[in-house]
Amino acid sequence: MKWKARILSTILVALLFVSPVSAEEPKLWKLQKVLASKKYVDLTHAFHPDIPHWKGFPVESVKDIYTYERGGFWAQEFTHVGQWGTHVDPPAHFHKGLRTVDELSLKEMILPLVVVDVHEKVAQNPDYVLSLADVKEWETRNGEIPQGAFVAMRTDWSKRWPDAAAMANKDEHGIAHYPGWSVESLRFLLQERRVVAIGHEPTDTDPGMSTSRNDYQAESYVLGTNHYQIELLTNLDGVPEKGALIICTFPKPLKGSGFPARAFAVVP
Fold first, then answer.
1. Handedness of CA 14, 15, 20, 21 (dihedral sign)
2. In a 10 Å sphere around its CB, with 0-12 CB exposed, 13-18 middle and 19+ buried, how is residue 89 labelled?
3. 3-state class of 196 per DSSP?
4. For residues 246 and 244, what is the distance between their CA atoms, to the nearest angstrom?
5. Which domains, and CATH codes, for the chain?
6. Cα gap 97→108, rounded to integer Å
7. What is the rounded CA–CA span in Å between residue 133 and residue 248?
8. Predicted TM-score (pTM) of this structure
9. Which of 52, 55, 62, 257 has its CA 20 to 30 A from that of 205?
C-alpha cells in the first residue's frame, strides 16, 4: 500500500507542473477592457502662461533648465499658483483645518458624472445662476441624482477659452458677467443628494457679478462642507446628462491648497 501512496503522490506533483493555471481573466481586467471600449472625453484645458485665471493670481512662468543641447535631456521649471488652469480646490482652500489636496481619498476620484445643462439659459443671460429648479428639472428627466456623484454645471462658457477677456466678460464698469451656482442648489446637492464633488467651466463657483464684489459665498459653502470642486472644466457638451463616469486626477502636494488637475469622462 505504501508504494501505491508514493505513486499517487508522484502523479499529483506531476499534475501540478503540467496542468495549466486557470485561464479565467481577473474581473478588474475585464472591467478595464469594457472601459477601454468606450468613448473618452477630455474635460481639461492644457495650461500655459497666458491662460485665463482668477484676477488676483500672477501669471505662470515656464523656463527650460536643461535642454538636449545643454545637458542631454529636456527639463522645465513651472512656476504657478495651485489654482491654475483646470484645477482642484480642496476644502482647505477656503477653510483652515479642513482637507488639503493630499488628503482627498482615491475613492473620490472615480465617480458617476451628472451634467446639469443650462447652456441655453446662459446664452440668453450670462449672469445666469444655476437654481434648485434646474436640478429638479434634471431629476424629472433622469431620476434622482445618485449618492456619491460628481455634478457638473454645463454652461459652454469654456468655448470662450483661452480668451481671458471673453471669459471675464466685464462691462464698462469693470463688473464681470459669467454664470455660477446658487447656494440653494449646492445645499440640496451636498446635503440631500450627498454628492461627492461639483465642477464648472468658469473661473469661479460664484457668478461674476458676485465675485466682482469679492462675494464667494457659494465656493465657501462647497468647501466648507469638506467637499472638493474642479474649476475650469471643458468639453461638457460632449458628455450626456447621465450615465458617464468622471475620473479626476491630480498630483499629491503635501498640505496643498490646490493644484492643476486632469479630469476626463468615460462615456457609455
1. negative
2. buried
3. coil
4. 7
5. 39-267 (3.50.30.50)
6. 19
7. 27
8. 0.89
9. 62
